[in-house]
């Protein structure tokens, strides 16, 4: 195959601006999929992706496009996620492309992740084609959107393509623009093999299927290949192109995108950004890699019933085969038994993992309050990382604590500046900056602690801005903080799953909120149940669940009052004994209720 007829490109956009729908139209127009086999969201294969209308995993597909001049072009499309939690997938995909279609919603305009994804594409030096989608909507405002693309993104609006991915209007013109403006891949077919891994998934029957793009050299079936990061050698049992189904081929050349099956047993053995080379004649240098996905949010997962722990072990191991970004280690808790301490990319990733465990493996789970990775410097100079409140050291031995900060970018109509600024102030933000990107739209940037975002910040933002606000963020390093560990005691016993590391200013409100919600969710017992929030030995919040009381004097009609008093005293003694040995049962919904943030 001639390299000049190959085009490797990606579709990038803010969430819900029509990436996956545009991919569907391209598949239909190039007849990659027949009308009989076609269904909506062809590249979103997971149930959760189709139900929520979001893309979670990158997908790749090869299409054949006959141009008007009779040349048949090979188009390698890599569809990317739009949600901020999965932005690491975007960077992996873009490293394998020469160009990108930047899709902007004609009704909503430039959003926060549109800007974030554009910067990622520019870092890879890609050719950008602006695409205005949803022009069929009655609320579409093309003039305003084109102005935003020019002012905020700095792109040439004369080259923008106007389309409706839903109706197909303008998509044929987009295909011809794509072929004209995106350059063919470079690379030396005679040089030693170097192929960049951009994704992998686990097939139950074939093992790991590796997606890659060849930068230099050629790859043939039966060839001995090496993964340079791990240094392990494998035999290329099957290679091929990525149609809607896999298409085996004997050879792949420089510039092509394809798949490799070689009996690899776990996704962990294949690292994103790794370089595949020839085991017999290896390349001297690997391709410049890109960052591994780093967990941002941590939470512990326990089975509701301890007898289901082995089922959870099997489920987590199966899930890990498909989700390389999920990290976990075994932990035990006095109240909840054995479970796993897990690292997630963000709150959406946590929800997706929880939902997959419950659906695909029929698990009933308890999740602890999510926390972030704190950095603690001890008095002896040692620095440790703490992601679990149970591992927080004695405050007397701590010299300083630091927490991760993010730089948040929020794009919204200017009438919401006041409420959004107030929300940011409540979440300890600083370094504010406003920038108008249109006549009535503004971009607000600020730095704030990641711990303040991982609860319901996104939901609150959407609520305050009536759905018009959009959020994108990137790590901004660590800053000193005043951390305290808040424990929740139920019937004077600490509930480990509810311990939380919070800023001292928020400790009282968090403890009050937790106690109040637990009081609502824990059913009454035969004795009084105190619920307390504590920092060390100091109680900072308390609620009391009143005892169920039976009227033991109901059968006494008049007569001597000492008879009634004797019965009440006996009941009191019984309740005291019951309280000493009584275990308070905390339902699962109580753990979940505590996680709901309340300003």
Structural notes for this entry:
The chain is α+β, with helices and mostly antiparallel strands and 599 residues long. It has 5 domains: 3-181, 3-Layer(aba) Sandwich (Rossmann fold), CATH 3.40.50; 194-278, Elongation Factor Tu (Ef-tu), domain 3, CATH 2.40.30.10; 297-370, 2-Layer Sandwich (Alpha-Beta Plaits), CATH 3.30.70; 375-481, 2-Layer Sandwich (Alpha-Beta Plaits); 485-594, Elongation factor 4, C-terminal domain (Alpha-Beta Plaits, 2-Layer Sandwich), CATH 3.30.70.2570. An 8-stranded antiparallel beta sheet has the order 11-10-16-7-8-15-12-13. It has a 6-stranded mixed beta sheet with strand order 2-3-1-4-5-6, with helices on both faces. Strands 21, 22, 23, 24, 25 and 26 form a 6-stranded antiparallel beta sheet that branches. The chain is globular and about 110 Å long. The termini are far apart.
Search tags:
599 residues, alpha+beta, Elongation Factor Tu (Ef-tu), domain 3, Alpha-Beta Plaits, 5 domains, six-stranded mixed beta sheet, 13 helices, 25% helix
* CATH architectural group of the largest domain: 3-Layer(aba) Sandwich
In spatial order, strands of the major sheet run: 11-10-16-7-8-15-12-13
Overall geometry: globular
- The CATH top-level class label of the largest domain: Alpha Beta
Count of individual helical segments: 13
Could you say how many structural domains there are in total?
5
Mean pLDDT: 81
CATH H-level homologous superfamily name of the largest domain: P-loop containing nucleotide triphosphate hydrolases
Main pleated sheet: 8 strands, antiparallel
What is the CATH topology assignment of the largest domain? Rossmann fold
Q: State the secondary-structure class.
A: alpha+beta
> Segments where pLDDT lies below 50 for 5+ residues?
48-56, 578-582
Strand content: 25-35%
Give the N-to-C terminal Cα separation: 60 Å
Helix content: 25-40%
Instruction: Compute the number of strand runs.
Output: 31
What is the C-alpha radius of gyration, as a whole number of Å?
A: 29 Å
């Amino acid at each position: 195959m001639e390299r000049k007829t190959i085009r490797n490109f990606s579709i990038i956009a803010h969430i819900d601006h029509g990436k996956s729908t545009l991919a569907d139209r391209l598949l239909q127009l190039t007849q990659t999929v027949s009308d009989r086999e076609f269904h909506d969201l062809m590249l979103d294969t997971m149930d959760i992706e189709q139900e929520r209308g979001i893309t979670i995993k990158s997908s790749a597909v090869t299409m054949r496009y006959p141009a008007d001049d009779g040349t048949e072009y090979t188009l390698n499309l890599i569809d990317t996620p739009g949600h901020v939690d999965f932005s690491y997938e975007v960077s992996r995909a873009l490293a394998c492309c020469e160009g990108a279609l930047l899709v902007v919603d004609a009704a909503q305009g430039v959003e926060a992740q549109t800007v974030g994804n554009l910067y990622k594409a520019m870092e890879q030096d890609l050719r950008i084609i602006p695409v205005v989608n949803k022009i069929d909507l009655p609320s579409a405002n093309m003039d305003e959107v084109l102005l935003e693309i020019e002012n905020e993104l700095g792109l040439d609006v004369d080259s923008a393509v106007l389309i409706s991915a839903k109706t197909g209007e303008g998509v044929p013109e987009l295909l011809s623009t794509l072929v004209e403006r995106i350059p063919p891949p470079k690379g030396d077919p005679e040089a030693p093999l170097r192929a960049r891994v951009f994704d992998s998934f686990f097939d139950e029957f074939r093992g790991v299927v590796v997606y890659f793009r060849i930068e230099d050299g050629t790859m043939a079936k039966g060839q001995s290949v090496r993964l340079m990061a791990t240094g392990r050698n494998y035999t290329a049992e099957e290679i091929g192109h990525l149609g809607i189904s896999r298409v085996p081929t004997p050879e792949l050349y420089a510039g092509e995108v394809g798949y490799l099956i070689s009996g690899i047993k776990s996704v962990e053995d294949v690292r994103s950004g790794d370089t595949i080379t020839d085991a017999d004649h290896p390349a001297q240098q690997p391709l410049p890699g890109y960052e591994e996905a780093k967990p941002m949010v941590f939470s512990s997962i326990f089975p509701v019933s301890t007898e289901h722990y082995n089922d959870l072990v099997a489920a987590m191991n199966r899930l890990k085969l498909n989700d390389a970004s999920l990290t976990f280690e075994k932990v035990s808790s006095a109240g909840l038994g054995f479970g796993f301490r897990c690292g997630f990319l963000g709150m959406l990733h946590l929800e997706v993992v929880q939902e997959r465990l419950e659906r695909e493996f029929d698990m009933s789970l308890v999740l602890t309050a999510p926390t972030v990775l704190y950095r603690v410097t001890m008095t002896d100079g040692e620095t440790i990382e703490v992601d679990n409140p149970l591992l927080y050291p004695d405050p007397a031995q701590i010299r300083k604590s630091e927490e991760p900060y993010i730089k948040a970018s929020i794009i919204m109509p200017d009438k919401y500046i006041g409420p959004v600024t107030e929300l940011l102030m409540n979440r300890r933000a600083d370094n504010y900056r406003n920038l108008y990107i249109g006549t009535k739209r503004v971009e607000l940037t600020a730095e704030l602690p990641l711990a303040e975002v991982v609860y319901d910040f996104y939901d609150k933002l959407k609520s305050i801005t009536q759905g018009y606000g959009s959020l994108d963020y990137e790590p901004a390093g660590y800053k000193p903080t005043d951390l305290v560990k808040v424990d929740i005691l139920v019937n004077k016993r600490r509930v480990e799953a509810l311990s939380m590391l919070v800023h001292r200013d928020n400790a009282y409100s968090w403890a009050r909120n937790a106690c109040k919600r637990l009081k609502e969710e824990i059913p009454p017992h035969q004795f009084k149940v105190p619920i307390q929030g504590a920092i060390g030995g100091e109680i900072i919040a308390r609620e009391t669940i009143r005892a169920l009381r039976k009227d033991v004097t109901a059968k006494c009609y008049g007569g001597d009052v000492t008879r009634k008093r004797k019965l009440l005293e006996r009941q009191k003694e019984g309740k005291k004994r019951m309280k000493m040995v009584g275990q308070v049962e905390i339902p699962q919904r109580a753990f979940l209720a505590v996680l709901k943030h309340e300003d």
